[in-house]
Amino acid sequence: MIVRYPLTSAREPLGSLLTGSAGTGSAGTGSVGAADAPSPFTPLILTGAATAGDIHLPGILTPAAANLMPPAQTDCIDQLRQSDWGRLPFSKTFAAGADLSALRSILDANDPSSLKFATPLFVAQGKADTTVPPTATDAMVSQLQLAGQPVTYKTYPDVDHRSLIAASYPDALAWVNARFGR
User: Most buried in the list 66, 119, 132, 164, measured by CB within 10 Å?
Assistant: First the structure.
């Protein structure tokens, strides 16, 4: 799960970041100050969370956000980016006073930072990526490494989302080959 908003700490749970309570320890209202940037990923994250638990999205969203949810069922990220989701400030997503605890719980349960695994993992991140923000990947990898997980993390300056595969291919291939003794 990826969050487009700047992280307040490398140890914040994902649900707290998305629902606006990062660093507060409180229920959050969706107002995240400097992290108020619009994101076309928001409806996709919300749709996924609603399929995983008992979340009635119209009950927690503002009318403006609720009206924007249907395209999340059919549109690709580029279409959502060009829609009003690409312009709706994050603070205008959740209804004032909405109980976001169920949403936060589902998002936290699906946060990859808390995964436990024994198989080594290679993570590549373009530092110019605007689709998968480097700050989110940095935080996820940091949490995994702090928990002792076997993660190799490579970053690529001036590389965006679309050119990451080509830029990281030599490193990824060498990493895989090293695991298989080639």
Answer: 164
Which of 96, 88, 97 is CA-nearest to residue 69?
Answer: 88
The answer to whether 167 and 179 are in contact (CB under 8 A) is no
Most distant CA atoms of the chain, gap in Å: 57
Residue-wise pLDDT for 19-57, tens only, equals 444 433 333 333 334 356 677 788 888 988 998 888 899
Smallest CA-to-CA distance from 120 within 87, 148, 162 is with: 148
Cα torsion 119, 140, 112, 165: sign:
negative
Indicate the pTM of the whole model: 0.61
Structure-token pair, residue 163: 């050119």
For residue 27, count other CB atoms closer than 10 A to its CB. Answer: 15
For residue 104, what are the CA distances in angstroms to 28, 41, 79, 178? 10, 16, 26, 39
Specify the pLDDT at position 174. 96
CA–CA dist 126, 65 (Å, integer)? 30
Strand-pairing partners, residue 154, are 124
pLDDT digits (tens, 9 = 90+) for 86-144: 788 878 899 999 999 999 888 888 888 777 888 999 999 999 988 888 988 998 899 89
d(CA 127, CA 106): 29
